[in-house]
């Protein structure tokens, strides 16, 4: 029997004891697989590992080579462009779609399914589909020219200056529905009395959404932000399927750089260094979120 404290309540350590015991295997697995191998990667990023990992420490040499590599710098630049566009447009479009569906329109289930369906597809399928759609010979450009607009040009995947925007289009098509569903669930959780009160006070709908609804959806926005940002950092298969990093290296991303270094160039040390930088990026995202969610909740 759990030992009681002075107030007669069971000790906090023994609360939900069965659940805590059941969670031990999962916790150990997470510690070994995630924490353990993450630390292993960080340690070997300071070594001269080639085809096989070896403890031949060379200090920060791998990181110096990494940040002097044009391919890595281009991949970081592309990630910033891709990430900014995804965060802005996926949330704006997702929120607008969620607001429209929240009006209890007819065939809402059909529209919701259609908008969410792309999220069920793999990034490889999405990349191939949009590679065909954006192909100038038989894709969107060809269709528009067939209507009589002969001078129309839209070939982002073969233009190094705008190729990442072609990737963004495909990513938005797939991921916006997921953001929409999360925000729609948040909207459905808002009390109807709030809407009635704003209508009685004569508050315009756009002000209600901007100054009342959006602040109330803060936890949903934060959760969606973390999920979308984590997906942005590790984007790989969409780029490989759609452009394979081309033309040239103009659509390279960090995850592809890691793969190329480790498996094509057989330079594990360089791949580990790039992986560590990605790990640091994810940590910068996750730690503030965890602090806001859990630290703020404890203070409250």
TrEMBL record:
- Name the predominant localization: membrane
Q: Identify one Gene Ontology CC term for this UniProt entry.
A: plasma membrane
Going by the entry's taxonomy, the superkingdom of the source organism is recorded as: Bacteria
List each copy of the ABC transmembrane type-1 domain by range.
76-291
InterPro entries xref list: ABC_transporter_permease (IPR051393), MetI-like (IPR000515), MetI-like_sf (IPR035906)
Swiss-Prot/TrEMBL GO biological process terms: transmembrane transport
The way this protein sits in the membrane is described as: Multi-pass membrane protein
Q: Which keywords belong to this entry?
A: Cell membrane, Membrane, Transmembrane, Transmembrane helix, Transport
Its localization reads: Cell membrane
Q: Where are the transmembrane segments?
A: 21-46, 79-101, 113-133, 162-187, 208-233, 272-292
Per the record, the similarity remark reads: Belongs to the binding-protein-dependent transport system permease family.
This protein's name: Sugar ABC transporter permease
- Say which species the protein is native to: Paracoccus methylarcula
